[in-house]
Each structure stands twice: as C-alpha cells, then as structure tokens.
C-alpha cells in the first residue's frame, strides 16, 4: 500500500511539474539584468531586469526573479547598473528638408546607373512631369552605391 501511494504521489508531482506554466513557457532569448530598466508603466516604473523572447518583452522585474527564467540558450547580459530606455529611436530628420525631400525622386535604392535612370523615368511617368521641367533627386544616395562607381553624366 505504501509503495502504491509513493508511485501515485510521484505521478501527481510529475503532472503538476509539467503542467506548470513556467515549465511549458519557452526560456527567453535574452535577459538583461542588474540594471535600471525604465518601463513607462505606472504600475512598475522601474525594474532591474527584463526578459525578451523573440521581439517581445516577456517579463520585467527583479534580477533574481527574471534570471530564474533563463534556459541553456538564453543570452544573459549584466548591465552593471546601466539604464535601458524603451522605444528611443532617433530617426534624425530635419523636418522641413525631410518633408520637401518626399517630393523628390528617391534614389537611395538604386544600385546601378540603369536602375537610377529607371527610377527617374518612373517618377516622370507617375507624376506626369512635363517635358523640359526640372527633376530634383533626394540627397540620400551616393555615387559609390552604384556598381559603376561614377556619377551619371547626363
């Protein structure tokens, strides 16, 4: 009877263990810990660690709590008390010239003079630019992006 109880108890523990959400959940790809994580969340303004799975934050909290989620392939980075600020992206645009640049021919993707000319021809066609009217290109392209490594001559 005691042996049977032990087997049943072990079986129940086994089921409990593998039905636990922590076991089923995939270990995070990345953990940043020992830092100052600015969350922009009123309920948890700062945390010392963050776990990231794919492109999403999966857990915020104390370093000890978040580090327990690590798996064998989790990359762990000690922030050494440095600060992490979410969503800080500097697009570095000058508002007026950036806005006016949207009306210009966009040549940044051209990789050859032929592609550059095709892009200009498409701009003329799509915008019904009259013959003899000036075409102005954006300034976000460079001669060394072209396989010919030279400026177009006309």
Outline the structure in words:
The structure is a single chain. With 154 residues, this protein is an alpha/beta fold. It has two domains: 2-84, Urease, subunit C, domain 1, CATH 2.30.40; 95-145, no CATH class. It is 31% helix and 20% strand. The protein contains five helices and seven strands. It has a four-stranded mixed sheet. A three-stranded mixed sheet has the order 3-2-7, with no helix packed on it. Strand 2 and strand 3 form a beta hairpin. The model has no long low-confidence stretch (mean pLDDT 84).
Structural Rg: 29 Å
Q: Could you say what the CATH architecture of the largest domain is? A: Roll
Number of strands: 7
- Regions with little confidence, pLDDT below 50 for 5+ residues: none
Explain briefly what this protein structure is.
By secondary structure, the chain is of the alpha/beta class.
Secondary structure: elements and pairs:
Elements: H1 2-19, H2 21-24, E1 30-33, E2 36-41, E3 44-47, E4 49-53, E5 56-61, H3 63-67, E6 75-78, E7 83-84, H4 95-101, H5 113-126
Parallel strand pairs: 1-6, 2-7
Antiparallel strand pairs: 1-4, 2-3, 4-5
């Amino acid at each position: 009877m005691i042996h049977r109880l032990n087997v049943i108890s072990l079986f129940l523990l086994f089921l409990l263990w593998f039905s636990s959400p922590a076991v089923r959940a995939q270990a995070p790809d990345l953990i940043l810990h020992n830092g100052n994580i600015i969350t922009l969340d009123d309920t948890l303004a700062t945390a010392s660690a963050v776990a990231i799975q794919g492109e999403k934050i999966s857990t915020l909290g104390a370093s000890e709590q978040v580090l327990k989620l690590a798996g064998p392939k989790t990359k762990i980075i000690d922030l050494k008390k440095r600060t992490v600020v979410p969503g800080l992206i500097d697009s570095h645009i000058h508002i007026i010239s950036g806005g006016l640049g949207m009306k210009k021919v966009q040549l940044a993707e051209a990789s050859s003079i032929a592609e550059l000319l095709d892009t200009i021809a498409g701009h003329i066609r799509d915008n019904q630019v009259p013959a003899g009217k000036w075409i102005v290109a954006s300034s976000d392209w460079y001669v060394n992006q072209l396989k010919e490594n030279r400026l177009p001559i006309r």
